[in-house]
Amino acid sequence: EIVLTQSPGTLSLSPGERATLSCRASQSSSNSLAWYQQKPGQAPRLLIYGASSRATGIPDRFSGSGSGTDFTLTISRLGPEDFAVYYCQQYGSSPFTFGPGTKVDIK
Amino acid sequence: EVQLVESGGGLVQPGGSLRLSCAASGFTFSTYSMNWVRQAPGKGLEWVSYISSSSSTIYYTDSVKGRFTISRDNAKNSLYLQMNSLRDDDTAVYYCARSAFFQWYFDYWGQGTLVTVSS
Predict the structure, then answer these.
(1) Residue A30 has pLDDT above 90, yes or no
(2) To the nearest whole angstrom, how far is the Cα of B100 from the nearest Cα of chain A?
C-alpha cells in the first residue's frame, strides 16, 4: 500500500498570499496523483489530476507539479473561497490511498 | 449535469447490516467505473471500494473485505454498497464517486450519506 504524507498539517495565510502544499508518497506512483479540495459540510472537489492537469472549471491560480514520490499543489493567490482542506490521492495502484490533508486557514 | 445522490444511511447496531444506494444521472452510467469513499467524523478520506463499468473488476480496502459488497445495476443507473457485520469504526459519511473515464481518480462526488454504528 502506498502511504501518502502531507505537509504542513495546517497552513495559516492571508488572502492574496501564495500557498504551497506538499504530498510525499512512500513509493513511486508515477504521475498518478490527484488533489481535492473539501470545504466544511461539502463533498470533495477534484482540482488536479495526473499531478499537474487542472480539472474542468478549476481556476488557473491552482497548479500541481511533481512526479514519482514528491508532489506540490500551489495556489498562487489565495481567494477567500480557497480556505479549505486539501487532500492528495494516489491512483497508481490499489488501494487508492489519500493523504491526511492540509488545512489552509485564514491568518 | 452529473448528479450522484446517495441514500440508505442511518443508525445501526454493531454487527448489523445496511445497504447504501447511489442514483446517478446526467451521464452514461454504464460506461464509467464507480467507487465508494468514506470519511469518519472529523477525519480524512478513505477509499472503500471500486467497481468497473461492467462489474468485471472489483476492489476493496482491506478493512472491509469479506464484510462489504459493492454492486451496480446499469439498467437502473444505480450503485450499491451492502455492508454487513458493521463495526463502530465503520461510522462515517459514505460518498459515491465516479472514476474519470478510464482513470482511477474521482471526478464527481455525491453529497454523502451518514452511517452511524452504535449501540
Answers:
(1) no
(2) 10
